[in-house]
Design the sequence.
């Protein structure tokens, strides 16, 4: 059974930083590209970032480019998202996802809440 468990969310002031983690199990982690997606209140899922299976290629939405950094540790079956210079518009539930297809994902975790507010 594929399991994705996110952690690391919380309340942070504008300009602050958070590091999200996603612990994966139930599949061969190193064989899959993985993504972070988010959903703000009242809005649909938004793709944030993707990393390839080996960690050598990364991709970002324009809204987070230069502020967020995706990475992975294949030895620990863990995906990360380092978020810097956070803005109120980054407030959302953040999910790690496998097999993102543009409007959804075949697998995603339960999410971790990020709230950016003073």
Sequence:
């Amino acid at each position: 059974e594929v399991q994705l468990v996110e952690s690391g969310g919380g309340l942070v002031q504008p300009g602050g930083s958070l590091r999200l983690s996603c612990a994966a199990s139930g599949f061969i982690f190193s064989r899959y590209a993985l993504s972070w997606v988010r959903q703000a209140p009242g809005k649909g899922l938004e793709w944030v970032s993707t990393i390839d299976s080996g960690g050598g290629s990364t991709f970002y939405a324009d809204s987070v480019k230069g502020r967020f950094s995706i990475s992975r540790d294949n030895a620990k079956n863990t995906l990360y998202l380092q978020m810097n210079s956070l803005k109120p518009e980054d407030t959302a539930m953040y999910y790690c996802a496998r097999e993102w297809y543009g409007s959804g994902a075949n697998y995603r975790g339960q999410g971790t809440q990020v709230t950016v507010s003073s």
